[in-house]
């Protein structure tokens, strides 16, 4: 199915970038995905693709390629297929941004350029996707899944240290895959990001028992700043204008206080200060770090460095 989608998109892109009717011969030898060796196979494939485009509402038309009308070609008229500016307001563009972040095509987050054409990015735009990154090596995911279902310990390198982990579960969150479980000989359940594994994942023959009632999702950081080696609680005052957005993004690990003017004061546990700063910069002057003082000073230095 993926090959069909790619071929259809290639065909549509080709038709839209030409300012004249193109023949089936040109399509066959220009557009990726068509069989160039078998005439009948190409004909059947091209006929199906034309029908599919038309069923999707694409105004695929046939026109003469020259004044003598000896040969006909295919064209998609821009005036019939192009869209008018939808004139999206800020709320609509925020909704579109969230939808875009929830979809990864081929494992890669889509670029922001289409949103720029629709009136620019919302003030809080962030490139971080919300969906699973399926571009990760399928074999790695398969091995972890196999070990999880067979209850076998896996071995791999992580942050410069050899690890042996009992995989309680395989979870994706905020665009990343995690294997969740305790290291051999320890009780603490941890989450390990698979794209940060530094060696091949090996499924051992060592069995393990998964305790009843374990909830692997509890070990996954709910926000980027909750995964790291630091451990500090940061107090932030959010202005009323963006308090609603901040309240949606912080997790239940934070404590919040709604102020009389509609603002929000939040005490946020932070384990990755750099990721937290990246999020805070999105708020511009609508959020102030009240403490601790060293975190506030580091953030001020970071902003001055950006500017």
Instruction: Please give the count of helices.
Output: 10
Strand content: 15-25%
SSE succession: HHHEEHHEEHHEEEEEEEHEEHEH
- Average per-residue pLDDT, rounded, comes to 78
Work out the oligomeric state of the chains in this entry: single chain
Query: Helix/strand-derived class?
Result: alpha+beta
The helix fraction, in percent, is 25-40%
In the predicted model, the low-confidence regions spanning at least 5 consecutive residues are 105-111
The CATH C-level name of the largest domain is Alpha Beta
**What can be said about the biggest beta sheet?**
4 strands, antiparallel
What is the straight-line distance between the termini? 47 Å
Radius of gyration equals 26 Å
List the topology elements.
Blueprint: H1 2-17, H2 24-30, H3 39-55, E1 61-64, E2 72-75, H4 78-81, H5 90-101, E3 104-105, E4 108-109, H6 113-117, H7 138-150, E5 152-158, E6 161-165, E7 169-173, E8 176-182, E9 189-193, E10 202-207, E11 232-238, H8 240-249, E12 255-258, E13 264-270, H9 273-281, E14 287-291, H10 293-306
Antiparallel strand pairs: 1-2, 3-4, 5-6, 5-10, 7-8, 8-9, 11-13, 11-14, 12-13
Quick recap:
By secondary structure, the protein is of the alpha+beta class. Helix content is 35%, strand content 23%.
């Amino acid at each position: 199915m993926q090959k069909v989608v790619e071929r259809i998109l290639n065909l549509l892109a080709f038709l839209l970038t030409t300012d004249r009717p193109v023949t089936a011969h040109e399509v066959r030898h220009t557009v990726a995905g068509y069989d160039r060796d078998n005439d009948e196979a190409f004909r059947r494939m091209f006929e199906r693709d034309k029908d599919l485009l038309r069923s999707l509402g694409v105004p695929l038309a046939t026109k003469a390629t020259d004044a003598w009308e000896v040969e006909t070609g295919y064209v998609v008229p821009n005036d019939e297929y192009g869209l008018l500016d939808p004139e999206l307001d800020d709320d609509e563009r925020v909704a579109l941004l969230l939808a875009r972040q929830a979809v990864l095509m081929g494992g890669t987050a889509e670029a922001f350029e289409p949103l720029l054409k629709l009136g620019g990015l919302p003030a809080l735009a962030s490139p971080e996707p919300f969906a699973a990154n399926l571009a990760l090596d399928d074999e790695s995911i398969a091995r972890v899944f196999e070990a999880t279902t067979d209850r076998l310990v896996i071995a791999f390198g992580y942050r410069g240290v050899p690890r042996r982990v009992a995989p309680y579960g395989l979870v994706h969150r905020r665009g990343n895959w995690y294997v969740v479980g305790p290291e051999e000989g320890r009780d603490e359940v941890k989450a390990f990001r698979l794209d940060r594994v530094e060696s091949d994942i090996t499924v051992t023959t060592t069995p393990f028992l998964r305790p009843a009632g374990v909830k692997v999702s509890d070990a996954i950081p709910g926000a980027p700043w909750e995964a790291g080696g630091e451990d500090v609680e940061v107090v932030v005052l959010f202005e009323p204008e963006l308090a609603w957005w901040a309240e949606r993004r912080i997790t239940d690990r934070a404590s919040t206080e709604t102020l009389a003017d509609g603002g929000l004061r939040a005490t946020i546990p932070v384990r990755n200060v750099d990721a937290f700063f990246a999020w805070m910069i999105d708020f511009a002057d609508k959020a102030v770090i009240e403490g601790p003082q060293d975190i506030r000073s580091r953030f001020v230095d970071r902003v001055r460095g950006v500017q």
